[in-house]
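B., you asked whether I could sanity-check this one before it goes into the benchmark set. Here's the sequence:
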Amino acid sequence: MQKPGGAHRWRIIFTMLGAVVVALGSFWLLEVMNKNGQDIEASKHLDEPDYFITNFSMVRMDLTGKPSYIVSGTKLTHYPADDSSDIDQPFVRKLTPGMPPLNMNAELAHIDQDNTRLQLHRKVVIDRAASPTAQNLTMKTEALTVFPDEERMETDVPVDILTGASRINGVGMKANNATGVVEVQNALRIVLPPKPRPAAAAQ
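And here's what the prediction gave me:
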């Protein structure tokens, strides 16, 4: 014999269990949403700069403890996601023993790959004074990638090079500051200074 109200009590129990399951499910969903939100927030923060420096100058040393190059600019912005930095109005001076300094100017720069790669953008100008073993050098382009530790640089865009009294134009360039070798890859055009005329023989 079934007691009165038994079915009603079971319905209440099932309703309560259902409410608990829904509550637990809602709590789990809330936790997942909170965790995903935290991950998104963390990722968003990683994409944002964590500090900036204005009117700065820093010196990087070589393995012997001597200055290798100097980097300065009006503003440096650091990004923690990849430990890279953007520089406004950068000035870079590469110091090589036995050679004049190589100066680099641009409107923007990006440093990455553990501070071993420097990318210069917009109105890039490279200058090096003449020395007993090398002519003066002036290079102009709109984009240049520099590897200071390896003393080399390269670009895929048009470049204008003035060395001594000779002018070189082309598209794409690779240069090695240590060896003084410059290779222009495409559309090479060279303008050489006229040869001096031999002195007239005395009558």
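One thing to flag: The domain at 51-191 is CATH 2.60.450.10 (lipopolysaccharide transport protein A fold). Otherwise nothing jumped out at me.
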